[in-house]
Amino acid sequence: MKVGFMKPHRRRKLYFLVFLLLSSGGAIALTLMALAENINLFYSPAEIVSGVAPVNKRIRAGGMVLDGSIFRSESDLEVRFIVTDLQGSEFTIFFEGILPDLFREGQGIVARGTLNEKGDFLAEEVLAKHDENYMPPEVLDVINQSHGD
Amino acid sequence: MIIELGHFSLILALGLSLGLTMVPAWGVQTGNITLMQCGDSIAKGLFFFLLLAFLSLCYAFVVDDFSVNYVASNSNSALPPQYKISAVWGAHEGSFLLWTLVLGGWTLAVTLCSRDLSVDMRARVLSILGFLAFGFTLFSLLTSNPFERSLPVFPVEGNDLNPLLQDFGLIVHPPMLYIGYVGFAVPFALAIATLWSGRLDMAWARWSRPWTNVAWAFLTVGITLGSWWAYYELGWGGWWFWDAVENASFMPWLVGTALIHSLASTEKRAVFKTWTVLLAISAFSLSLLGGFLVRSGVLTSVHAFAQDPQRGMYILVFLIVVVGGSLALYAVRAQGIKSNTTYSWSSREAMILVNNLLLVVATAVVLLGTLYPLAYEAISGGKKLSVGPPYFNAVFVPVMVVLFIFMAISQRSRWKDTKIDLLLKRQAWYVIGSMGLTTVLMLSLATFKSYVLLTTTIAFWILANLLENIFQRVNRKRWNWNYLLTQPLSYYGMLLGHLGMVVMMIGISCTVYYSVERDLRMAPGDEIELAGYQFKFVETRKINGPNFTSDQAEIIVTRDGKEVLSLFPEKRFYSARGSIMTEADIDPGLFRDLYVALGEPLAQSAWGVRIQIKPFVRWIWIGGLLSALGGMVAIGDKRYRKSRRNDFANFLKI
Asked: CATH number of the domain at A42-148, please?
């Protein structure tokens, strides 16, 4: 192709600009796609119970671990426990693996995983924070909101 | 009494930092040399009083003065002495005092190591550093005063240091990190001083290089130590989590790396002048942003500094003033500065441009992932989300792969222009050779993984180019190996810096793709085989530490029937805070780590046990340290001192 009306160095500059635009546009699009695929929205116990939270999609959920609700398997690392917002909304989390050190009854936790049709939460990861005085902001919101109602 | 002395010192430091901001600057505006020279003594006084304040706080920790709130909440009389000292920077207030002290130290270093810098430039640099010190000290005094007392009623016993921080890694990690973080203040101050003076010449780049290198090297060590600490202390066996606070330290590192390269081209070839200034501003701005993210509690992170909106607000305003002011000055002054230097697209300048572009893109990727949850929360009115590690891996890693390919190609590039033949000569053979070597190694030692093939091939390819670089230098002198001794230190710094990245790349890809990880339930007598090792859970027993009690398990590791060693992971209970801590036991090795950590106690005296075999994981940190060493070696280069003297001579002539 001949771009006769342009001086050679201008033309080079144009090609360079086009290349830059295409590549940066592509890179931005790919980045945003990757971002959109990997964001995990947080849902409170009330949202899980009322069915607002999507099923079979990776989300995060959390609240306080209900006293006396932790049941462990006799043979492997399976564990289930109930998470509550202290205002009557609660759901069960299933997890297989090692729980963090600060996981205990009455502790605020956040879990990442999927919700199944039965309303059970299958966690891939359970987080409790590294400072016993520290409450995950999500959980703090949950508690505060339900007290406000 | 000592505490009041410390408090008073901090107030004096505030006054001195204000003086340091005003006096030399006033001297510059009025052309008064005496006022300009005042900066030196004020800076020394500032450092002295910051040090005094810091030592007073250390003293309070050593003598268990629990009337000081900060000591009471972060120490305990049973705490071992070395941790009483590191507890000084174990939480927000003290660590910020350390941060401010480090800035004072850098300011002092500028007065001591800049005799060759012209009087007015030194005055400008000190004035800018003084302003930063003012901002930090004021923040300390207003929102996070470590010297606050609770009198007359105070606790008889302290709350103890967070057990996670009672560890060697946490004694050294924060100081290293802060020296690095805050060190970028010097290139920043230099860049601003240059814009302020309007003399955007190459001298500032030459002057900035050693400072940038030192800051970068410390930041590298700090991040590396942090990764190592997380690996053995958090009990998960991970070495990088894409946690917001890790990212906060990683972004200045990425931009700092770009800055090191860009400074080289600005100094040697007078190109990218304004771009380099912008990078210097960005590196420090990202350090400040990191400080904001860590200390405002706006992000969910494993680093739990207490949340306090007031602090966040203060840092945010300071951040806006510093970044906004710098960028405004940049916008006014950087206009119309053009470089007349030309270079071809295959020159070293072009390669460095690619390096800079890729590093800036990588930084943008990390920044987007780190700030997106904040932006989303603000827009959606409080709904929270998190960006998972898969995002960072999916976007960041490819950028790095491209960067490393360019690292291989660019080793041969020359300033101004490189002949394409020269650039590509033998490269195909190197690639094929590296690929062959990787395949042979992979098939003989492990299994074939295409990602490892890609990354390790690139690593060997870079290595081939680094070696070739050395051989060619010797070859040019008819294989006189002594010639290598005459090479400047910056050359060796460059080789080491890149070698470190090669080592790290091999470490990362092997750890990611060849680690064997298993979480399982084990009762006494249970055995499991993993990757050729047998792990036998013998028993657990109770042991007592100075400020904790512990369940210690014994796990015997055998291989081919021969006993390798016993590992003793612990679950500790720190009574002062009532907190539980996993203490993993690791058998470290150059080629593999055996990692065992305890989960929770289960029924029938069984325990949850985490067993991991992590090949080459040490290479990640060895690589980081090698790179940091490279940065340090490079500043020993005689050239910097010599040429600075020349600048001064030139300045006097004018």
From this structure: 2.40.50.140
Tell me whether residue B323 is exposed, middle or buried, using C-beta atoms within 10 angstroms of its C-beta: 0 to 12, 13 to 18, 19 or more.
middle
pLDDT tens for B87-96 read 999 888 999 9
* Residue A149 banded pLDDT, cuts 50, 70, 90: very low
Query: Rounded to a whole number, what is the distance in angstroms from the first to the last CA of chain B?
Result: 54
The pTM of the full predicted model, rounded to 2 decimals, is 0.93
Measured distance CA(B561)–CA(B571) in Å, rounded: 29
Instruction: Tally A–B CB contacts below 8 A.
Output: 102
Q: Taking each helix axis from N to C terminus, what angle separates B273-296 and B185-197, rounded to the nearest 10 degrees?
A: 130
First to last CA, chain A: 69
Q: Tell me the per-residue pLDDT of B95-138, one tens digit each, with 9 for 90 and over.
A: 999 999 999 999 999 999 887 788 999 999 999 999 999 999 99
Question: Among residues B162, B194, B217, which one ends one of the domains?
Answer: B162
Query: CB of B390 within 8 Å of any CB in chain A?
Result: yes
By CB neighbour count within 10 A (0-12 exposed, 13-18 middle, 19+ buried), where does B377 fall? middle
A8-12, A13-17, A35-39, B460-464: least confident range: A8-12
Distance CA B223, CA B627 (A): 12
Instruction: Kindly calculate the radius of gyration of chain B based on its CA atoms and give it in whole angstroms.
Output: 27
Sequence ranges of the domains in chain A: 1-39, 42-148
Shortest CA distance from A99: residue in chain B: B599
Q: Checking DSSP bridges between strand B533-544 and strand B527-530, what pairing results, if any?
A: antiparallel
Is B600's CB within 8 Å of A99's CB?
yes
Q: How many domains does chain B have?
A: 2
What is the rounded CA–CA span in Å between residue B514 and residue A140?
Answer: 39
Among B162, B178, B199, residue at a domain's last position: B162
* Domain boundaries, position B148: 1-162
Contact B384 A137 (CB under 8 A): yes
CA distance B198 to B237: 51
